[in-house]
Design a protein that fits this description.
By secondary structure, this protein is an alpha+beta fold. It folds into 2 domains: about 5-85, F0F1 ATP synthase delta/epsilon subunit, N-terminal (ATP Synthase, domain 1, Sandwich), CATH 2.60.15.10; about 85-135. Helix content is about 30%, strand content about 40%. It contains 2 helices and 8 strands; from the N terminus they run E-E-E-E-E-E-E-E-H-H. Strands 1, 2, 3, 4, 5, 6, 7 and 8 form an 8-stranded mixed sheet that branches. The radius of gyration is 16 Å and the shape is globular.
């Protein structure tokens, strides 16, 4: 029996797969693997890579905080921010990382220091995920062909 997975942000539903085999969640207390029939869990989501597997295909997201509701037949990821690893723009990420690092080096007002540190952390996470995806070579994506 598969597990239904939804990834949602405040702006939109980012991903919906009704027949996933496994979900790997970067929870704040550590990484958590979820298979169908998992015990119900409500946990907080950390900064990290969320991976959804279906057969030989895999969908990966850079997630930045939020909440995860795990039920025996469904996982709902309510992310503060989620970006598909296939849509990450390396040039934009590197530029954002350089800007944030420069702000921290030059010093910023105390009220902006936390924002610059978070921006740097997000950029570094996105770079790690994108480079990991590229090093694995061709990865099959989960494609929703039900709408076609």
């Amino acid at each position: 029996m598969p597990i239904h997975v939804e990834v949602v942000t405040q702006e939109k539903k980012v991903f919906d797969e009704p027949e996933a085999d496994m979900v790997l969640i970067p929870a704040t207390e550590g990484h958590m693997g979820v298979l169908p029939h998992h015990a119900p869990v409500l946990t907080t989501l950390g900064f990290g890579e969320l991976i959804i597997r279906k057969g030989n295909a895999e969908e990966s997201f850079a997630v930045y905080g939020g909440v995860v509701d795990v039920r025996p037949d469904k996982v709902v990821v309510l992310a503060d921010l989620a970006e598909s690893s296939f849509e990450l723009d390396m040039q934009a990420i590197e530029a954002a990382r350089d800007r944030a690092a420069k702000m921290l080096e030059e010093g910023v007002p105390p009220e902006l220091n936390r924002e610059a540190a978070i921006a740097l952390r997000r950029a570094e996470l996105a770079l790690r995920i994108k480079s990991k995806l590229q090093s694995r070579g061709a990865v099959l994506r989960i494609v929703d062909d039900r709408d076609e």
